[in-house]
Amino acid sequence: MALVLMRHGLLLAGILFALGLVGVLVRRNLLFILLSIEVMLNATGLAFVVAGSRWIQPDGQVMFLFILTMAAAEVSVGLALLLQLYHRFKSLDIDAVSRMRG
Amino acid sequence: MLELLWLIPTLPFAGFVALALIGARLSRTKVALIGVGSAGLSAIVAGLVGFRFLLSPPPGHLYSQTLWKWMHVGNFMPEIGLSLDALSLVMVLVVSWVSFLIHLYSAEFMVDEEGYSRFFAYMNLFIGFMLTLVLADNLLLLYLGWEGVGLCSYLLIGFWYKDPANGRAAMKAFIVTRIGDAAMAVGLFLIFTHLGTLKIQELMQRASEQWAVGSTLPIAAAALLLGGAVGKSAQLPLQTWLPDAMAGPTPVSALIHAATMVTAGVYLIARTHVLFSLAPAVQLIVALIGAVTLLLAGCSALTQRDIKRVLAYSTISQIGYMFLALGVGAWSAAIFHFMTHAFFKALLFLGAGVVITGLHGEHDMFKMGGLRRQLPLTFWAFLVGAASLSALPLVTAGFYSKDLILWQAWSSKLGSPWLWGAGLAGALLTSVYTFRMVLLTFFGEAKAQVSRSPGVCIGIPLAVLAVLSVIGGFVELPQTLGNLPLFSEFLHSVLPKAPDQGGAGSLLLFQVLAAIVSLGGIWLAYLLFLRHRHYAENLVRTPLGRALHCFWLGGWSFDWLYDTLFVQPFVTVARLGKEDVVDLFYQGVARLSRILHSGLSATQTGRVRWYAAAIGIGAIVTIGIAVLL
What we know:
Chain A is mainly alpha-helical. Chain A is about 75% helix and about 0% strand. Chain B is about 70% helix and about 5% strand.
């Protein structure tokens, strides 16, 4: 089994995280924002797994399981918010919900 | 029985506490029961104590009761102690019984008012403080009662607080009397520093031992105490608050601003008469203040249209008589006049209250008239009170007390024909303005219909006070009429007799003169204000008449004078001081924080993506700093 170099694994995680962050900042559709957040979470998880395999510790994979659980919970809340948003504003544009300014 | 003394002020205080705590939740009947009941019980206890005192006087005609030690600072150990002697007994009896009658009256009079329990709570608090004032055995406790009644006066003048004018009148009363009280406080400091005690008996003894007649210290002490008395008793030059104090409900005017509180100054001077005897110059000033005040206030009373303001000026004028009596050393005559004045002036105010509510709050006498058929009981009671005020000879209490003052203003060593002349002129003014008021209100053609006639609770106090206004004078019959000076004999254990210069003339002659003046005033009033109304109207129409009328109507322009001399400069200085350096600094701080605030609030755009970007940048910066440093 060819070991993946930690450098490469972390680079991949960093790229995925940046992609996700850019998606969160650029996208206006709430659904895509949620997707981008998922990408970021997975990037973090990947970083944990890579680190775990580097030091041959199970902790990295345990952390990834936690992240998965949390991501599931986050998505359920996020989707509920999404439904409410659509219900109230008939659109998924996140910029429409800016009444709490100032 | 005398050991019940402490109950006399405690009962009204207890009534106050009960009403203040649960009064708002009680029905009106229960509130009245507590308010009137505590005043009534206090009056009954006062009656029992007084009865006991008269039957078997305690040794030295003085009963003291020390309740507890107030504080202990160095050699300053004031006690909460009460003392009862002839002078305070007279005061206690008059205060508690007149208060009880006025409470009974208020129970019906105020029944439609909002704040019924608040009213009775304040009134009970007032009685408690007033009784503390007259029973105190040291000047500090007296001062506590003194300030307490001032507070109640403030609260009750502003009882209808929704009208800002009433609040202003209350503040005016509070501030003007405070000027006098400040002088009095300094006087107390002076007495304590030099005599080492504030106990009234001790300090009077030490003063007469240590201080020479006419030396600086007694003059300063007496003058400072006089300042307090002048403020509280609305004498020149601090009299301006009393006419405005009529903004309060009528029972308040009757109780506080006629019968009891305003005479506290008279009581204070009589109580510390030794100091005043040691300072003949100050005593002369007392007499002069009294004489001038009674004339000025009498003239002002002559021109007022508002029935309550007539009575207010009349009160100032009658207290002027008491000061005149104190000034010539006729101590017991002053207290005698205090007592009769309490009866008839309370009666007049209560009668005026019935008239005012009967006519839907109409205060203007020129819009009243012909009320004697519609309000017969009130008319007769008012007539008795008015007769007593104008000292109708032989049958009224006012005659005996005022006559005593006039006679002693002439015959006393400290008296003079001038003081007597002022008193006599004041007597003429008194009967003219009194009967002007009676004639305008109750005689002539009816101009308005009475909507509400008084019930039992109003009728009883009127009747009782009317009887007292007549028989109250028979406790002191002059030499020419039975020679039965019970009242001054009784007070003799506390207050010395007026120094008689002997053979100054015939008492009878002076009595006849006073009687002629009183009757002449009534006749003049009849002529000017009923028979030939146009005489008075023509008199006012002449240029001099109009000027005098305006001048007197405004109370000799004292308000204007004080406004220009004190209030306006003070307001100007305050306005200038508003923008000083210190304030600039604090305004700068305020402006800076406002700018920061608007900057920060601009970042709150409400856009989620902005917040996400901010979090991201923040994270990058934090990590960057952590990595680089």
